[in-house]
Write a structure and sequence with these properties.
heterodimer, A: 255 residues, mainly alpha, 2 domains, B: 283 residues, MetI-like fold, two-stranded antiparallel ribbon, 13 helices
Chain lengths: 255, 283
């Protein structure tokens, strides 16, 4: 049974990582038409250093992902604290709206945000992209943090106020530290969703602020450039390094 | 007094954001769906149901039916693949669980468009998949994998599987193992334990996972673009065409409204059947 479990999990991981392996493999392929394997080469990494626009687009994507995740995290956490701590008029409506946002198909959200930005006559670009990504990350953070808060012992907060802590002190020293794992999970999830997004980005950004998916889609009309594989491989290597570094630090920390 | 200011401001912040960026835009789309266009393509303020009537054309009805069917199929495949995985993951040692969970997420840091192109080169006529099958002697000549419905399904499942795994895992991890053991002590076999204990207790995770896969599946236009043939037009492609290429916004808005309507219908049917199911379980 254990062998079966392990092989099933390995199979799914294989499925998830096979396309990544393809990217890495083809990034070292000398053939311009990336299907057939010709010979090992570093050409695409070399041309990556000369083609700045692709790297710029990747940096833009990372920037938006970091900012959107952070803003969504701050606002979502405060919102979750509000929903957890207080009873107020319109609380159910707010929760309903959060649920709707969480469940909205990307395409519906993309369309509606585009209509909003055009109606407000906002120039499509960095700001519209950031606002949109923050919006679709927001409910994920709020729900993650709220579900963690709901698992707590409420007496902890009562104890804090009995000991003379004000509302802010109780939140700052009791609620936030307890919610911290969920806040971090919410940030990570938002960061991931933002980096991975194609649909919303397509609708709400303009030519003067290009992010990776748009850049690639515009390049593809001239055939998929192997530089994309090289860039993806580099980013993938960095992610793996970050993850293993974090893992190493966590393991080293005395339990 | 200060606590009150704090309370009001954190609630207002979230509410205002959601009203401005979710509620108002959707109302705008609803309004736009009743507008028309003049000859030169400018939006006209002459409210009518024309856009909705145009959607009744069999071509568009087929696009909707096809998209909903494909989204449903994607959801079922993801559930079938994801549930055992999440279940086994939850049985791993607590120290390795976060590592494995992170490994599920890492591919997502590479934008899904890039990964979809990777799947394309994998499935291409002279791609890795065909070469492997030929080398294994399973087929004699390359088979057509790309530009088929199955290619689109594979792409969808690939892009959305983690959205199923994560909520399932958190539901299964929370499951109180003692309840399953109690059922075993009372003589329930493997299947009865699963059907009557594990499954109902992890139902919230199943629902969350299914919704998180089904909803985005309707919009992933780029997967159909990259992996599918011309017959695989989905609602997402249709909306993208109307908004970004044909610029017929009122028509696109009407399609978006219909999509939301269908989803609400789906959701309420789902909620209703769920109520029946839980009523059966807990008399």
């Amino acid at each position: 049974m254990d062998k079966l479990k392990t092989s099933y999990m390995a199979l799914i991981f294989g499925f998830l990582y096979l396309p990544m392996a393809v990217l890495v493999l083809y990034s070292f392929n000398s053939s311009k038409y990336s299907i057939r394997w010709e010979a090992f080469s570093l050409d695409w990494y070399r041309s990556l250093t000369t083609d700045a626009t692709l790297v710029d687009a990747a940096m833009n994507s990372l920037l938006v992902a970091c900012l959107a995740a952070s803003v969504a995290c701050a606002m979502g956490t405060l919102g979750a604290v509000g929903l957890y701590r207080y009873r107020f008029k319109g609380r159910n409506a707010l929760q309903g709206l959060l649920f709707v946002t969480l469940m909205s198909p990307d395409i519906v959200m993309a369309v509606s945000l585009l209509v909003l930005f055009i109606a407000l006559q906002l120039q499509l670009g960095f700001w519209t992209l950031l606002l949109s990504h923050t919006t679709f990350c927001l409910p994920f953070v709020t729900v993650t943090v709220l579900s963690r808060l709901q698992g707590f012992d409420k007496h902890l907060i009562e104890a804090a106020s009995d000991l003379g802590a004000g509302e802010w002190q109780a939140i700052r020293h009791i609620v936030l530290p307890l919610a911290m794992p969920a806040i971090m999970a919410g940030w990570l999830l938002s960061f991931t969703l933002s980096l991975d997004d194609v649909v919303v980005s397509f609708f709400v950004t303009g030519p003067e602020f290009e992010v990776l998916p748009l850049k690639i889609f515009s390049m593809v009309r001239l055939g998929v450039k192997p530089e994309v594989n090289a860039l993806a491989t580099l980013l993938f290597a960095v992610s793996l390094a970050v993850v293993s570094g974090a893992q190493y630090l966590l393991q080293r920390k005395p339990q | 007094m200060r606590a009150n200011v704090f309370k009001t401001s954190i609630i207002l912040l979230l509410s205002v954001w959601l009203v401005v960026f979710v509620l108002v835009p959707n109302v705008l789309v609803l309004v736009a769906s009743f507008l028309g266009r003049d000859e030169s393509g400018f939006i006209q303020f002459s409210p009518s149901f024309d856009n909705y009537l145009r959607l009744l054309d069999p071509i568009y009805v087929r696009v909707f039916a096809h998209s909903l069917g494909l989204a449903l199929l994607t959801t079922l495949v993801c559930l079938g693949m994801g549930y055992p995985f999440a279940y086994f993951l939850a049985q791993c040692r607590p120290s390795v669980r976060p590592v494995l969970l992170t490994l599920v997420i890492v591919p997502f840091w590479t934008n899904s468009l890039i990964r979809t192109y990777a799947i394309r080169s994998l499935l291409a006529a002279k791609g890795l998949m065909n070469n492997t099958l030929i080398a294994l002697g399973l087929i004699d000549e390359p088979i057509r994998l790309l530009y088929t419905g199955s290619a689109v399904l594979i792409g969808m499942v690939y892009i959305l599987l983690p959205f199923m795994i994560l909520p399932l895992f958190s539901a299964i991890e929370k499951l109180d193992r003692r309840l399953v053991e109690a059922a075993a002590d009372l003589g329930a076999g493997r299947w009865r334990r699963f059907w009557h204990v594990t499954l109902p207790l992890t139902l919230p995770g199943i629902i969350a996972g299914c919704l998180l896969v089904f909803m985005p599946a309707l919009g992933l236009f780029f997967i159909a673009d990259v992996l599918g043939g011309s017959r695989d037009l989905l609602v997402g492609n249709f909306l993208k065409d109307q908004f970004l290429d044909a610029r017929d916004w009122p028509f696109g808005a009407a399609a978006s409204v219909v999509l939301i309507g269908l989803l609400l219908l789906f959701l309420s049917a789902y909620a209703y059947s769920l109520k029946q199911f839980t009523a059966e379980e807990k008399p």
